[in-house]
Each structure stands twice: as structure tokens, then as C-alpha cells.
Amino acid sequence: MPLFMDVHDHLPDGTTAADVAGAHAEDLKIQDRYGVEYKAYWVDEVGGKVFCLVDAPTPEAAAQVHQEAHGLVADHIHPVVAGG
């Protein structure tokens, strides 16, 4: 399955790593409906950014999970290849 890195450039003011953890938990609850697997995420609290690594059939499927789970859709979704 294709691998993607989605990038959220502008989180709502005051968003914390704990908030992102909660949103990620919501993704995990529904991801199977779309054939998606959110694998990991990283949070830059100071910069207000989040990066999510996701296996998905399409970028649109990955975005749909975020939209339905919590509404925080990524600004960019990049196809990536895992390194060592």
C-alpha cells in the first residue's frame, strides 16, 4: 500500500501534544473503514505543526479519515518511501 506523510501547517492556537494524541485516537477508531493505517505522528507544539505517517490506498482516503474523525485535515499530503 502507498505510504504518505501528511503535514498540518496551522493547528488551532493552543493545540497541545495531548490534543493531537486524542485526535490520533479518533483516527484509529475509524481508519479501517477506508483501508487506512495511521502509523505514527509527530507534533511541533511551538510551530503549531503535526506530521502523520499513513498507509493509505490514496491521499484522499487518508484525508477522509481525518475529516470524519476530528475535522483537522492536512494542508499537504506527500507520497514517501520509508528509509532505514
Automatic annotation (TrEMBL):
**Entry's Pfam families?**
SCO4226-like
In Swiss-Prot or TrEMBL terms, this protein is called: DUF4242 domain-containing protein
**Domain of life from the UniProt record:** Bacteria
Upper taxonomic classification of the species? Bacteria, Bacillati, Actinomycetota, Actinomycetes, Micrococcales
